[in-house]
Amino acid sequence: MNLVNVVYLSPELILIGTAFFLLFVDLFLVKDLSLSTNLAILGTITSLAIETTLFGIKENACGVFYIDPFSCFIKVVFLSCLLITLFLSKNYFEKAKNKAEYCFILLLSTVGMMGVSSAGEMVTFYICLELISISSYILVSFLRDKRSIEAGIKYLLFSALSSAIFLYGMSLLYGMSGTTNMADASRILLDQETNKIQVLTIILILSGFLFKADIVPFHAWVPDVYEGAPTPITGWLATGSKIAGFVAIIRFLIGPLGHLLFRWPDLFFILACATIIIGNLSAIPQKNIKRLLAYSSISHAGYIAIGLCAYSALGTASILFYVAGYSLATLGAFAVVCLTKMEQIEEYNGFYKKEPLLALVMLLCLASLAGLPPFIGFAGKFFIFGAALENGLLSLAIIGVLFSVVSVYYYFSVIKAIYFGEAYERNLSIPVYAKALLCLILISLVLFGIFPSPIMDKAQIAISSIASL
Prior knowledge:
This protein is an all-alpha fold. The protein has two domains: 1-260; 263-469, no CATH class. The chain has helices spanning 3-8, 10-29, 33-52, 69-92, 99-118, 122-140, 146-177, 182-190, 196-213, 222-228, 231-254, 264-283, 289-310, 313-340, 356-370, 376-390, 394-420, 432-450, 453-464, and strands spanning 59-61, 65-67. A two-stranded antiparallel ribbon has the order 1-2. Helix 2 runs antiparallel to helix 5 (99-118). It is globular and about 70 Å long.
């Protein structure tokens, strides 16, 4: 690896170095419970700062990693999600004795996600996906209680099956092309006539990605795993892991293999409709806020899939904007759940009287997820539905709008409890850094909702760097 490649991959290398350094410090030098999280936060901020300077570069590092605006945009999203998750973990695992191991696994999981956004070679791509999966098994079970371990086992079983299906699809792709380079495989397959093996290959590979993205019918694991996992990890799965699934679809399929997908917008039309409908309707009866947000996460996967149905530059750029706004609002909502450690919706009755800032954060985050103006969630849905209309998908846009209205009902069941329920007696101690983080989330929700251009412009540049749609 030459010096240029080191510079291009420096954000990933910093995270890896930080992960091993904090583990070394904890094992041999200092047994300070807060030090590991602080070191992880410092490494993440450094990595994020460097990543923002690489946006205009379009190179190939080590022959297997694409360094381009697309990967840079997504990595900034991943690192931002990681930073928020680490801050939430700082309070949630305040008395945990194995914080160093927790931060170590979380940082390596992020490295896997960043690798997925850059990988241009099948073996590297698969290794990065498995790094995400294996890290997630451990993080979901981190509390080591009955509910957490059960959630980890369920995630392990479903994820192992999806990985096996995906790996079999990649083996078929390698068998047909004779190369593990995705761009070379694409060129070879485009010169061949479409056949049943090609169709089977795409179905198998796509199935593995749909599991990560929580698309129906690969969503059954989501509510139980989200409920049983530690709350910061639930937020991490709902954002980073989900986004990695859609990034994999865009990087692996739209980039090199998009033209081989046999009328795939029609396939995603069905998947998007089913995911939006099932996710929203299943969220209505939920009494546990983590399960409600789990089904909400499924429905948002359907909205994101609308951008794939559009199969255009605007549609795919809208996906990038949407995942940025969705991540911000979702992590904001989970931040409140994490800081209060209250999971039942009825526990939030009269909550605004004790913690007005946290109540306001939950209100605005849920309003953004519902797609109400002037928040970033409204801008995201506006771009997604606009892309659908631009490509003649009127019926899909109508379904999206109708079920966005449905989502208002169950989101505001939480708001009703917070502002109109009979108050419970409770004493909460919210750290100053957590309040500062929540204020930053609030400002971002409104600011980028009113002025979406800075993010959307970057998203369009990112998509133009990987595919000619």
